[in-house]
Design a protein that fits this description.
Elements: H1 24-51, H2 56-80, E1 101-103, H3 104-113, H4 120-132, H5 137-142, E2 150-151, E3 154-155, H6 163-167, H7 173-184, H8 196-215, E4 222-224, H9 225-234, H10 238-243
Antiparallel strand pairs: 1-4, 2-3
Helix pairs in contact: 1-2, 1-8, 2-8, 3-9, 4-9
Bound molecules: iron/sulfur cluster.
Iron/sulfur cluster (SF4) binds next to loops.
Length: 267
């Protein structure tokens, strides 16, 4: 048995509220899959890091992309072939106007793509971090300002976007836009058709990713993506300190964004 097996996702203080109250079977499935992912990734990471300690960051990011993001993408592809297809697609941006909660390696992966000092997205990230600082998810959404990584109505880091963005899978794009407009008009979110079981599975994998970091002795909490990116732009040395086991971000995680409600809950 791998050393990390037996850690539950709640044991590290991470709760993934199920979309269906009392759906024990779904909860157990999410936990089982997340724990298996955590064990497999930690075993692989330890082996690779022992072999090439200087490539620790590359190993972690590659495992995250292949094992964790790969599984979310496979799930989205499966849904796309289902009876109710996924409506999300290029140019559909209504979900890019809210707080994105991400793990530290997810933020580092994106920060590395913003490494060119001439990249205009750096300034946009810094401005957004200042504008959204201290806001609740509800206040941030009401600003009507998009994620600073949204460029020409496209996610400019689409292949490397965080799990939180991959998890918002909608069956009704028009419903997403109507809900955003309702919020911008000062009203509540509108119920819409989201694939909540898929969202739950992907959030479980996000918890597994936190568990992987913790098992490797790295700060593991999730934080507001924009605030982390701004910190990484201001001080790229954060990456080395995180890899050395330092707690590099504030200890109080940002509030969790609300879970989407809908009627496409599975299974
Ligand atoms: S990272 Fe990409 S998908 Fe996520 S909110 Fe920003 S622009 Fe949208």
């Amino acid at each position: 048995m791998q050393e990390s097996q037996g850690h539950s996702i709640e044991e590290i203080g991470i709760r993934v509220p199920p979309p269906l109250a009392g759906n024990r079977a779904l909860r157990d499935l999410v936990h089982r899959l997340a724990e298996g992912l955590r064990a497999e990734a930690v075993a692989l990471a330890r082996r690779e890091i022992a072999r090439a300690p200087e490539a620790k960051l590359e190993t972690l990011l590659a495992l995250m992309k292949v094992l964790v993001f790969g599984r979310a993408d496979a799930l989205a592809e499966e849904l796309a072939d289902g009876d109710t297809p996924v409506a999300c697609g290029p140019g559909c941006t209504a979900c890019c106007y809210q707080t994105v909660q991400a793990t530290i390696p997810e933020a580092i992966l994106i920060a590395l793509r913003l490494g060119d000092p001439a990249d205009p997205r750096r300034e946009r990230v810094l401005d957004a971090a200042e504008a959204f600082q201290g806001m609740s998810p509800r206040e941030r959404r009401r600003t009507g300002k998009p994620c600073p990584l949204l460029v020409d109505q496209r996610c400019s880091v689409h292949d490397d976007r965080p799990l939180a963005c991959r998890a918002v899978l909608s069956a009704n794009a028009e419903g997403c836009r109507a809900s955003l407009l309702s919020v911008l008009a000062g009203r509540d979110e509108l119920p819409n058709d989201y694939f909540l079981a898929a969202q739950y599975l992907i959030r479980g994998d996000g918890a597994a990713l936190q568990g992987i970091c913790r098992d490797l002795g790295l700060q593991h909490e999730a934080f507001d993506l924009v605030q982390m990116l701004a910190a990484l732009i201001r001080d790229p040395g954060i990456i080395e300190r995180w890899l050395a086991g330092e707690r590099v971000f504030a200890t109080v995680p940002s509030p969790k964004p609300p879970t989407k409600r809908n009627d496409h809950e599975q299974p």
